[in-house]
Amino acid sequence: MKKIIFSCLGIFFCLISNAQDNNDIRLSALPYYSYGKGLGITSPDSIFQLNIRFRMQNRLTYLNNEDEDPAYEALIRRLRLRFDGYVGDPKIIYVIQLSFSPGDVGAIEDGENLNIIRDAIVFYRPNEHWNIGFGQTKLPGNRQRINSSGALQLTDRSINNARFNIDRDFGLQVYYLNELQNNFSYNVKTAVSTGEGRNWTREPDNGLAFTGRLELFPLGAFKSNGTLFEGDLKREDKPKVMFSGSYHYNEKARRTQGTLGNDLFERRDLKSLLLDAVFKYDGWAFQTAYMNRMTDNPITINPEDAAEQRFAYVGDGYDAQLSYLFDNNYEVIGRFSHQKPHEDIERLTPQTNQYSLGLTKYIWEHSLKLQAEVTKTDLNYFDSSNRENWYVRFQVEIGI
């Protein structure tokens, strides 16, 4: 009897041991999950990693434009889905970002591609200093444009950013990064790209765009990459400042703003100068920007109808933005923007001044926030006439 009992117990423990071994095998085949900025998944053998993130902006705007009936606008301003990670080696990184809101995709026209791809690029990072990318993403342009639209203090970028920024393009980018927390630091960023903007699918040409950017940090780098988001959310305990500048040359550009805008009737060589400064200390944040675009003979004429013309937007603009973050995570923001078209096109488009005042409540930094804004826009035309437009806006930003 004892032999039978011991035999049964032996079989039982063997079964338990085998089950445990099989369970360990199954567990070792499962991916590893992490939770930081988004949801991260890493394969058991660490061959690949995938991070998933999303964000959306829902907004309601009351518009009161001169000579027009007041109106309301309610929309999903942005809806983005982002994937990033590495394949094979942590030094080989990919970034994919898709957009789905009407404002991001744009009007759908017959024969045109659906413009949902924002970023699709692979980076090689051999060490902490060098970063080499090939694909489509933002060019190293002005500071506010480089920052994500989800990291803005007001509900949108400035009118000068809308006119003069150099946006996304497909090409090769090479960065040398040298940021130190408490010592003088600098970054050098360069790009050679098509100059046509994102998702260009029409006929190729023989023009390229060349971009160079220099960033200087005289007092050391900001906390937590603080140049990548507006406002002093990290409350710098020492004053920090960044001075930066970009130069962009778009050879034989097809569009009114180089990488953006309607098609020109003739190609033009566009030259852009973009200068920025950012200051943060103890809840205070100040940033300013100067933007300029130039070309020879910016007006183009339709060869089939001389009465129809399109022009490259040339001129310059200035932004100044000041904010303070209170201890309860409410922030007050003010911005002034001045935009002046070049004399070659001043008869065709107005000189513009814009004044914005905003109040933001940060619930989870820029990932979850409530924003309210009132903005006045003064349009001054060449014939001395003027218009005054207003809007009041409420926006909810959420993302991971």
What does the model show?
This protein has four helices and 20 strands. With 400 residues, the protein is mainly β. The protein has a single domain (53-399), classed as Porin, CATH 2.40.160.10.
CATH architectural category: Beta Barrel
Whole-angstrom Rg: 26 Å
Strand content: over 45%
Name the CATH class.
Mainly Beta
Please give the alpha-carbon distance between the first and last residues. Answer: 64 Å
- Helix- and strand-based class? mainly beta
> The CATH topology is what?
Porin
Report mean pLDDT, rounded to a whole number. 90
For the sheet with most strands, the description reads: 16 strands, antiparallel, barrel
Brief account:
By secondary structure, this protein is mainly beta.
What's the helix and strand layout?
Layout: H1 2-28, E1 32-36, E2 38-42, E3 48-65, E4 71-87, E5 89-99, H2 102-105, E6 117-124, E7 130-138, H3 143-146, H4 159-164, E8 168-178, E9 185-193, E10 209-217, E11 240-255, E12 263-281, E13 284-294, E14 299-302, E15 305-311, E16 315-325, E17 330-341, E18 351-364, E19 368-380, E20 386-399
Antiparallel strand pairs: 1-2, 2-3, 3-4, 3-20, 4-5, 5-6, 6-7, 7-8, 8-9, 9-10, 10-11, 11-12, 12-13, 13-16, 14-15, 16-17, 17-18, 18-19, 19-20
Task: Pick out its properties.
about 55% strand, mainly beta, 20 strands, Porin, single chain
